[in-house]
User: What shape does this take?
Amino acid sequence: MAEKSNDKILIVEDDRNLLDTLKYNLRKEVYEVVTAVDGAEALDIARREKPDLIILDLMLPKISGFEVCRILRKEMIVPILMLTAKADETDKIVGLEIGADDYMTKPFSLRELLARVRAMLRRAKMVEIQPKPEETLLKAGDIKVDMARHQASKGTTMLDLTPKEFDLLTFLARNKGLVFSRDQLLEKVWGYDFAGDTRTVDVHIRWLRQKIETDPDNPKYLITVRGTGYKLEG
Assistant: This one.
């Protein structure tokens, strides 16, 4: 008999057939699963159950998935995987902007969804590990990353970063001057050991630049190395 997992997953999906399919397959992977079928119920259950990961459909009754994500991101640090039936790039960008960690477009492969869930949970556990004292403060020019307090600042201004933006900045600051491809960043920051959608990286880079650069169109810190990837200078 498989060992019971301590990880709790909240599925928020109003399509009952898909909800049942996801619940069945995640329970087969020995995750504890709780569910919600609308945005209001999702907020109540998330606050009560404190899940380790949330699978969140964007098109929900009562309160939209966008609003649920925005509210939860202010209240808790939890990996959020968005599900969207729309191919519209704007939906994905908005979802990532308000704090979702990644997205999948319906229809999707259950195998890939399970792989992403495992990777996101694994990465979340790695982030929780306390850094060594000498690694708690990272600097790039006047940008500082305080890993112990999970805060970042530019000069005297605190930066309002989503959890994934913080993870991305921390990784690049820890490896200042080194160039990483999009696939490498998916592996190192998102924890994916398989081919993922590299547009997720580009969107996070773009929004991180909006927050750390004086002129995001002419970045001083977060540099694109054409044909290769990204690096942090400073």
Observations:
- The chain has a mean pLDDT of 87.
